[in-house]
Design a protein that fits this description.
Number of helices: 6
Helix content: 25-40%
CATH topology of the largest domain: Jelly Rolls
Radius of gyration: 18 Å
CATH superfamily of the largest domain: q2cbj1_9rhob like domain
CATH class of the largest domain: Mainly Beta
Shape: globular
Bound molecules: nickel (II) ion
Number of strands: 17
Length: 226
Amino acid sequence: MLLHVPKVLTDAQVARCRELMGRAPWVDGRVTAGHQSARAKDNRQIVEGSPEARELGDAIVGALERNPLFVSAALPLRVFPPLFNRYEPGMAFGSHVDNAVRQVTGTPFRLRTDLSITLFLSQPDEYDGGELVVEDTYGAHAVKLPAGDLILYPATSLHHVNPVTRGTRLAAFCWIQSMVRDDGRRALLFDLDMAIGQVNQALPEHHAVIALTNCYHNLLRQWADA
Ligand code: NI
C-alpha cells in the first residue's frame, strides 16, 4: 500500500525544520547506504546524532505519533530516528532496496524495516525532477508532495529518486517496524479502521460500530507484536 498522509507538519514546523537544516552539518549520503545502494546514491545527508538531527527527528517522530491516519496505516512498533537528505542539481538516487534490518549507529537499537516514509520539506515548485519513484506490482508511482506531507510505502519495494534538474530538494526519511509484519494483514486492518470511522460518522449510535470495533481489536490481538 502506498499512502499519502497530508499535513503531518504545520507550515510553522516546516519553517523550523528548514531553519535547522540550514545550519546542520552535511555529509555524503553514502554513509548510511548498504553495498548495493551506495553505488546508486548521490546526495547529501545531515550527520546522524548531530543536535540539529536530534531536534528535527524528535519533532517528526512526535508529529507521526499524533497523526491518526499514519498510526492507523503503519501500526508502528518502532520508528528509526529520521534521516535528512538534500539533492542539488545533478544529484539522484538510482533504483535500490533498503536494508531489511537497521541498527542505529552506536546503540543496541535495531529494527526490521517493514515500511518506509519520505516526508517532503521543499515545496514542489522549488525544484524540478526529484520525484520519489516506488515500484510495486501495479507499476512505478512517481511521488512529489507539498512540504509537510509524507508518503508511506512498503520497505520491500524497489525505489529511486529521479535526478534533480533545478533547485534543491529537502526531505526526511525513516523506517518503521510495524506491530503487524504482513502488508496484506496491515492493509486489511487499515481498510476496516477507515470503514468503522465512516459508519461511526453516519450512524454514531449503531450497535454495529461496537461489533466492528470488537472485530478490529480481535484481529489486531491475533496479529500484533507489541
Ligand atoms: Ni531507499
